[in-house]
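Show me a record, fold above all:
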Amino acid sequence: MRLLCSDILPLRIEDPQKAFIDYFNEAASSCDHLEIAVGYVSKASLKELGRIVEEYRIKKVCLTIGMYFLDGMPEGTYHTAVSLHEAWQNSDIDGEVRIVRAFSYHGKLYTFYKEGQPIAGIIGSQNLGAIKLEASNLRQYEVAAVTEVPEEIEELTGIISKLKRPNCSVPIQDVHIKLLREVNRELVDQEFVTRVSSDEVTAYQNQKTDISFEIPLKVPSNHDDPQMRGSNINVCYAKGRKRVWWEVEIVVGKEIRDLPGYPEYQVPFMVVTDDGWKFQVWTCGQNNKNLYSKDDLKIMGRWIKGRLAAAGLIESINQVETDTLFEGLITEETLEKYGRKSLTLTKTALTTTIDNGTEIDVWLLSFLPHTNDDRELLL
């Protein structure tokens, strides 16, 4: 047995100790079968595990996660785990992600095999996040023990195998789990945007009128569909003038624009969002077809795309031209996983006065998933 320790000042690694992350990568690069059972995971570590399995051509892998079934799982982590499971299931990798539901499992076990023979086993305090250090765990000191004794490795694998039984865990796509909605922080400190408390949002919602519009988000059906790939909320992917990824257009159909009470052309109004943001919006464009955030087109984009990125369904993109895999593209499949394909714009009976003294109407704007009864706000 040897120790695997964090390498953090003032407790730097000393011989014969080794860093967990270094040993894990070495063992993974030498194995063709990997078994993991941990309490918690992170979005970054799930993506890193997917990369490691692909890079080292690991043929068989199972990740069992133990601490989310009873209390709920952050939606970004959940969607990333589902994507990893689906990627393995749709490839030549014999891989799966499982959720323990019989009890709360808080152990941390890792075993590595090569051609059917056990080569290493780790038992210790490191959850999966230890394979991809982030700000949240960079200064977190952990200690694990590693064994290369076959009998001891097999004993660890025996526990993992029991956790994989149907009476303990199920594949992640087969479990109904409460999702904890993660806060979209992309509007924090943005100019022309104000934070609104949950009590204020409720107060505005209590002043709703009967004037309300359901506005579909027009997107391609999937990543292979070329239709609308560079328009509407994916306008940044259009050919011609380059736009930043956060910039969006919302094109509203004539059947909605012609309804009584629809906002007038280029008359600003204030929207209060379901998740507590406030900014000005207006309608403009040919035939009044566009719904924009008034002062900066990126505000609406940060609100919509920020929600989907926080949910782990798309990646925020710094340079659109480098996104050759379209990881930032929003499709119908994306919106289906999120649980919502439209925005709801509802007028309130209230008005507000802006900086220049003009009085404008207040509307509510919602992009809550229709499955929101299974989601709680994660602050």
In short: The chain is about 25% helix and 30% strand. Helices lie at 20-30, 43-55, 75-89, 150-163, 198-205, 254-257, 297-310, 332-338. The radius of gyration is 24 Å. The longest strand covers residues 342-353.
